[in-house]
Amino acid sequence: MIRTPFSLRRGLTRQAGKAVPARRTFPPRKLPHFAICAFAWLAAATAGTAAPGTGDWVYAGYQHAQVPTSITTSAGVAQIKSGGTHVLILKQDGSITASGSNYSGQCDVPAEARTGIVAIAAGLGHSVALKHNGKVIAWGSNADGQSTVPAAAESGVIAIAAGYYHTVAVKQDGSVIAWGKSTVAWVPAAAQTGVVRVIAGEGGTIAFKQNGSTVSWSYNNMGYPTPVESMSGIVAASWGILHQAILGQDGSVTVSGTYGYGSGQLIMANAPPEAQSGVTAIASGGQHTMALKQDGSVITWGFPGASVPAAAQSGVIAIAAVGNSCAALKQDGSILTWGSSQGDYGAFTVPVPLQSSVTSIAAGWTHSLALKQDGSVTAWGNTYLGLNAVPPEAQGNVTAIAAGEYHSLVLKQGGAVVAWGKNVQGQTTVPVEAQSAVTAIAAGHYHSLALKQDGSVVAWGKASNGSENVLVTVPASAQSNVAAIAAGGTHCVVLKQDGSVVAWYANALAETVPAEAQSGVIAIAAGGGHTLALKQNGSVIAWGHNGYGQTAVPVAAQSGVIAIAAGTRHSAALKQDGSVVVWGDNAEGQTVVPGEALAGVDKISAGAYARASFYHLGLPPIPPPPDQDGDGLSDAAETQLAALGFDPLVSQPTLVNALFTGANSAGLYTASQVQALHPGKPLISRNPATGKLKLTLDWRKSTNLTTFADFPAAPGEVSVNGFGDIEFEFSRPDPAAFFRLDVD
After folding, report:
1. Collapsed DSSP state (helix, strand, coil) of residue 679
2. Neighbours of 392 (CB within 10 A)
3. Are 332 and 74 in contact (CB under 8 A)?
4. How many other CB atoms are there within 10 angstroms of residue 714's CB atom?
5. Adjacency order of strands within the sheet including 126-131
6. CA–CA separation, 636 vs 434, rounded Å?
7. Closest-CA residue to 31 (of 54, 60, 3, 72)
8. Which of 325, 349, 339, 318 has its CA nearest to residue 13?
9. Residues 338/306, Cβ–Cβ less than 8 Å
């Protein structure tokens, strides 16, 4: 009998793949509790497309189910590695994204790991990346030092692997380095030369040598190293909770252990006949095994067993598994997932870009909605109560969407509201008043809101009030002149036309509006138990529950903000420069900003029950304007300011500094605003009573850049041409002047 390479005791699911070894069997008396191996190798996609572009959406955080391919675009995925409860995705452009549990920060991809990556590995609670220059980067759990990269692994590394508590790297000279838990992070003499790749599990490592032999080492139940074993013919191995799969060079799969219990009896994990030949890769989930065949088809077996969808029966180039979930990477760069995501932390709801045809997104607790340009709606996530089955009446002519905890709302072009999902408290029973003339909708826990054209608010369902459920009613202060609405977990918020905020119902913290939100507010957002308000000056105010820091507004969100969003326990702000700031709960990676969303964002979305943040990629970042003299002011700006003494060919740092200082005191807050010399993108408000849009322009003039005075124009001096351009015609008696245009 041949002994098990190493014993794995408890844990979640992981796998290792791409292979083919000699068959091995393991004695029943030695059956170990196999932990999830920190490993899932996927080959590079051969036909993936480029990274998401202008108009597409990207996101981070929890999704109960994979986004339907009908509204996604290829992410150009090259590799996927699954850890205990999270997944790393390496894209063809060398960037990384992550999904799943983030309890140890394993989904917080550092800046250094966002470019130039050639390989990835995922442990139980930590992540590892290999740069093109041979440097290893690790982050996440570091309780045993598994994320503390030694100096020897900062260059010359060609392969990596991550175990439960340790990390392994192969050097160019064929030697192996290991760090982390001392009982397993050691390397025997036999693995000091000739190694080309490694895989790792909870309690040990297997090294594959250039000569085709394999060396494995581990620790026994007493914590002492076990004798080194030399093996041959193994190309890959994968581990589940109670089973182990070995792929031999002949393309056969050998499995030992159990998949679970049936009627009190152990169910042996025997591979089916179709897995006895032609297998090129294997992956083990918690209680199931996957095999990839040479013809691109996938086989799965085990307890409880998961049927393979038709799309995964051809054209697959790589596989992976976590918990009771499966994933397959197709030749066209798309990713298929199936099985149960319950208890899998959403690890295999792999983040993929959403198409530019999607105009808005709404996220609930376990489901999400996407509104397309053609007015149709796509839903995905929990099948409970038909959440992902959009009713016929909500299939077209939709203008807005909202997702509550377990219910959904859509607004039709005619102003009618359609609702479906859980209705235990009447939250989907749309009243007559909300079946016409509605301009906005919002969904909370057990309640729904609608804003009417006349500025009134309609509410239905119930709001949890401590141990009671009380029928939602609208206070007098929110029954007129309302400009916007938001529904939190158990509270309601409205923004009045005068810029004040009114909040009410079951959340005492969230409904107590602070003094600074009583005026000058231009937007609101409601989370699970907190509220955000955006002020005219670009600052964010937050109040309510703060158990995860969701109301602790960071400095970066205290100026220059143009939009806000609130999730269950996190908050997000969109800045004027297209960057985003996210704070609060990060247990599922919802505050991790994807690399593509570091700039150029023009929309953000979350929701009271959202555990994810969505970002719409607007125009690409504008490169800095030319500055020939290098004094900090662009050539274009200096040319336009020539009357004030500026010269684009002469460096004038003192004069430029005076300009920025004076402009700042005059109300132009940043140098970039001066550089641009235009008012920026106006936010045009709609009068809910009349439905008309209102644009306000205010000209002001200064001759000293310190004080600005009104610069009124006679009616005959202002006109609108056939192209919609607003033209001002005026004379300027001053020898030099600076004009400022304030836009509301």
Report:
1. coil
2. 7
3. yes
4. 8
5. 117-122, 126-131, 136-140
6. 52
7. 3
8. 325
9. yes
pLDDT at 303: 67
Name the H helices within 198-243.
Answer: none
Provide the residue type at 387 as one letter: L
Main-chain dihedrals φ then ψ at residue 216, nearest 5 degrees: -125, 150
Closest CA to 33 of 182, 280, 241: 241
Neighbours of 46 (CB within 10 A): 10
Please name every residue paired with 219 in a beta bridge, in sequence order, or none if there are none.
225
The whole-angstrom separation of Cα 164 and Cα 205 is 10
What is the number of residues in the chain?
Answer: 744
How far apart, in whole angstroms, are the C-alpha atoms of residue 77 and residue 291? 20
CA–CA dist 454, 558 (Å, integer): 33
Compute the half-sphere exposure of residue 598: CA atoms within 13 Å on the CB side of its CA. Answer: 10
Question: Residue 685 has what pLDDT?
Answer: 57
Whole-number Å distance between alpha carbons of 12 and 107: 17
Please state, in angstroms and rounded to a whole number, the distance separating the CA atoms of residues 169 and 491: 52
The residue-averaged pLDDT of 208-213 equals: 86
Tell me the C-alpha distance between 266 and 182, whole Å. Answer: 34
Beta strands at 136-140 and 234-239: parallel, antiparallel or unpaired: unpaired
Contacts of 266 (CB under 8 A, 6+ apart): 258
Which of helix, strand or coil describes residue 676? helix
Give the pLDDT confidence score for residue 510 in this predicted structure: 66
Give the amino acid at 118. V
Distance CA 615, CA 397 (A): 24
**Helix%, strand%, coil% for the chain, nearest 5:** 10, 40, 50
Token pair in block for residue 462: 């119930």
- Got the DSSP string for 429-471? ---GGGSSSEEEEEE-SSEEEEEETTS-EEEEEEEEETTEEEE
Report whether pLDDT(342) > 50: no
| Widest distance between CA atoms in the chain | 101
Question: Mean pLDDT over residues 464-489, rounded?
Answer: 84
Taking residue 385's Cβ as centre, other Cβ atoms within 10 Å add up to 16
Spatial contact of 244 and 24, defined as CB atoms under 8 Å apart: no
Strand order in the sheet with 601-605: 57-61, 612-617, 601-605
Q: How far apart are CA 298 and CA 291, in angstroms?
A: 6
Cα Rg of the chain, angstroms:
30
Phi, psi of 738, deg, nearest 5? -120, 125
Sequence-ordered list of residues with C-beta below 8 angstroms from that of 383, at least 6 positions apart, any chain = 389
From the CB of residue 83, how many other CB atoms can be counted at a distance below 10 Å? Answer: 35
Query: Quick check: bond before 304 cis, omega within 30?
Result: yes
How far CA 431 is from CA of 393, 398, 443, 493, in Å, comes to 16, 19, 14, 20
Tokens standing for 454?
A: 């006349």
Tokens in use for 219?
A: 């620790």
C-alpha span between 649 and 286 (Å, rounded): 68
Q: What is the pLDDT of residues 118-152, one digit of tens each?
A: 999 998 899 999 998 899 999 999 999 999 999 99
Under a CB-based contact definition with an 8 Å cutoff, are residues 283 and 74 in contact?
no
Task: For the chain, count helices (H), then strands (E).
Answer: 4, 52
Nearest to 169 by CA among 204, 200, 142, 143: 200
Distance from C-alpha of 484 to C-alpha of 491, rounded to nearest angstrom: 15
